[in-house]
Design goal:
12 strands; 23% strand; 10 helices; single chain; TIM Barrel; nine-stranded mixed sheet
Length: 317
């Protein structure tokens, strides 16, 4: 049976204005002790062998290659498991990707967001469009056949032509997978505190339709609300989420789901490290879903992928 493992890396060089994730920009001194705690949690967890692993954040590409390798070594995986690691374009290097390949990473997810400098600035991203092209080239040189370019549409000042330029520039890199997400306003973020910067629904709808048109014409098929891929390059780990499958979250603020029970770990890396260090569970809270609520949740998730919800005729009489 498919089983996924998600590992949360909560470190970033800078927090983007729209980010509401559990990330910190002033905890670099915790990198080694945090990875050690994740390894302990993984080894002490009674979980099936993983068919997919996803390392997200945060910015996993801030981890030295040997630290990431040591963490993946302690997560049991089937042969041919999909192993994805998120990467900021400015962090990409041949040495880093070579270390990832040796560690068993099979897929890279690049946080690109835009290929227009002014839009990148509005999104408070640190990289340039040139960094994206260089990162993709280095990934290919390292032997990665599957990678994703992740985009965000709808920030203030982004015209429809800007968005077209972004999608066309990304397609020029011939990616096997593209994710495109509408910018969302999360409470507590810097963006949330500036309503004048909030996205417009109609503008985002137009950009979504344009993305679908351009990506489909280029041979990337839409297979989930925000994802397009060439055949065979769909993200297996995310498909497990949409199918309401079982997965285990490792690290602070990581969520898990097994057989209708959901739970999540403590939010801060310091507390997470302390709890694991003394042999205690880092679980903060959890819930067990009833039959009806689990079925409803499953239907909601099935509305996301292309297959949708099966239509079952009702008996009459």
């Amino acid at each position: 049976m498919p089983f996924g493992v998600y590992v949360h890396i909560p470190f970033c060089a800078r927090r983007c204005d729209y980010c509401a994730f559990a990330v910190w920009t002033d905890r670099a001194s915790l990198l080694s002790s945090y990875v050690d705690a994740c390894r302990r949690e993984a080894l002490s967890s009674s979980m099936p062998i993983a068919t997919s692993v996803y390392v997200g954040g945060g910015t996993p590409s801030l981890l030295p290659g040997d630290l990431l390798a040591s963490l993946l070594d302690d997560i049991a995986r089937v042969d041919g498991a999909e192993v994805t690691v998120e990467c900021n374009p400015e962090d990409a290097s041949g040495a880093l990707f070579a270390a990832w390949r040796r560690a068993g990473v099979t897929r890279v997810s690049f946080g690109v967001q835009s290929m227009v400098p002014a839009v990148l600035s509005e999104l408070t991203r640190r990289h340039t469009p040139a960094d994206v092209g260089a990162a993709v080239a280095r990934a290919r040189e390292a032997g990665f056949e599957t990678f994703s370019v992740d985009l965000i549409y709808g920030p203030r000042g982004e015209s429809l032509d800007d968005w077209r330029r972004t999608v066309e520039a990304v397609l020029a890199l011939d990616p096997p997978h593209v994710s495109a997400y509408g910018l969302t306003v999360e409470p507590g973020t810097a963006l949330w505190r500036e309503p004048a910067r909030w996205p417009d629904d109609d503008d985002q709808a137009s950009k979504y339709l344009l993305a679908d048109e351009l990506l489909s014409e280029a041979g990337l098929s839409w297979y989930e609300v925000s994802n397009w891929a060439r055949p065979g390059h769909e993200c297996r780990h995310n498909r497990l989420y949409w199918a309401q499958g079982d997965y285990r979250g490792i690290g602070c603020a990581a969520h898990s789901h097994v057989a209708g029970r959901r739970w999540w770990n403590v939010r801060t890396p310091e507390r997470y490290i302390a709890l694991v260090g003394v042999g205690r569970s880092p679980e903060a809270a959890g819930e067990s879903l009833s039959g009806d609520s689990r079925r409803f949740g499953g239907l909601a998730l099935l509305l996301r992928p292309r297959d949708g919800v099966a239509v079952v005729p009702l008996a009459v009489g």
